[in-house]
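Board work, copied verbatim: Lon protease 2
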Amino acid sequence: MKHPADLPDVVPIFPLPGALLLPRSRLPLHIFEPRYLAMLDDALKTPERMIAMIQPNRVPNGCDDALYSIGCAGRITQFSETEDGRYMITLSGLSRYRVVEELEGFTPYRRANVSWSGFERDLGPTDVDVHFQRGPFLDLLGRYFHARELQTDWESLKEADDELLINSLSMLLGFEPEDKQALLEAPSLTTRRETLVTLIEFALRGGDDEELVQ
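↓ predict structure ↓
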């Protein structure tokens, strides 16, 4: 699927706080709730094999089932079934979308009419961040991992291309759902990297305006 016209107007939506899927990235999921097992079963019967990830929008005094307006759809590219009927799947990110309206229906899971307009670049080639300075970025990331007592394969990070590095970190690091949404909605890889740096620096400050934790 290379063009928005190739994508369906109606998609099954999977609301999951903190779960970020980005175009050309992969998201592993463990499916066990009956409604999402039904969603998976139905999705596998379609040519697109698509599930659309989206985050709940927990606004104060808002509707309990409110959603953010923008999510990202992925194609099921791997799945395996456990002995107790659960599934481990991998979604490969295709394109972001905007919810037009949620649809009523007889499925146990939620569905929405969506628009792919404005996200044509998601279906294109790998994005490039021409202003990316890998050395200073990895130095900052090293301080963040040290402060959080996290481990990683630094050689893989050094060798990963810009988009894979920035998108993978955006998906994996433990930011709040609203921060994940900001990373999702970033209009370019450069903007996403700038947002990611801001979030890391803010975390290193301990969430205030003090100097960075050393």
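The domain at 4-123 is CATH 2.30.130.40 (Archaeosine Trna-guanine Transglycosylase; Chain: A, domain 4).
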